[in-house]
Amino acid sequence: MPAQVMGVLNVTPDSFSDGGQWLAHSDAIAHGQALFAQGADIVDVGGESTRPGALAVSVDEELERVIPVIEALSSQGVVSVDTSKPEVALAAVRAGASIINDVTASLFQVAADTGADWVAMHMQGSPRTMQVSPVYQDVVSEVAAFLVDKAEAATRAGVKKVWIDPGIGFGKTLQHNLSLLRSLSVLSATGYPVVVGTSRKSFIGTLLADGGSPVPADQRVEGSLASALWSITNGASIVRVHDVKETVRAAKVLAAIQEAA
Ligand code: HH2
Questions:
Q1: What number is the average pLDDT over the span 184-203?
Q2: In 3-state terms, what secondary structure has residue 100?
Q3: Average pLDDT over residues 126-132
Q4: What is the pLDDT of residue 2?
Q5: Residue 159: partners with Cβ closer than 8 Å, 6 or more residues away
Q6: Where does ligand 1 bind, in terms of residues with CB under 6 Å?
Q7: Distance, CA of 78 to CA of 40 (rounded, Å)
């Protein structure tokens, strides 16, 4: 099966790349529809930013942001909810989301209880502090062991489908991110399908920095595409991206090469 493209839809004022753009429900719904039209297989709706230092959001505020959007979009395609809160995950599945995208890898019981699929992502620390000084002995084997442990627990609890995600940028230095991508096949070899989210992340801004400061998030599309194609080539089942149209087109060419005799 070709890799699937998950389009990012952040209904937040402060997400690092699209914060504030889709805060009105009508704008968010229209953007989600546009992502499906551009070829997204899944639209990932989030109501709380996880960027380093992001502010916490109450359950009520997060529900108010995401539920109407999920209700509207889930009649049009597969919707995932990007949340860390069990109450939001539960309400989102009731509103039509079929995947719980869980950056804390802690909500598998909600997936088991509702029959939703579950993405377990690795993070060291919490969003507020995760980039302060992340340390690993061996980042690839530690992240893989963490994810397999969570995936096995979720499977035992009755979750039907579990994806694992190395959590690029979540408590990782540039070198950690590059090592995880370089050794992505270690995660694919676990047998669990792999999700990768590199889109517009700061490691790309750093790699593309021209002299001094990192390039801003809206100028990271080439790096996002390079890392998405690398991820697919090394076994990712889903790439989570902001630039859906460009990723779908690039992945189409990659798939043709991969399928050639
Ligand atoms: N990255 C972000 C958010 N959710 N979920 C998964 N499974 N994997 C990721 O790599 C991932 C994720 C961060 O990106 P974004 O949603 O664009 O920004 P913000 O957290 O500021 O809303």
A1: 98
A2: strand
A3: 76
A4: 85
A5: 108, 111, 112, 116, 117, 118
A6: 8, 10, 12, 15-17, 46, 49-51, 82, 101, 103, 119, 121, 165, 167-168, 195, 197, 240
A7: 9
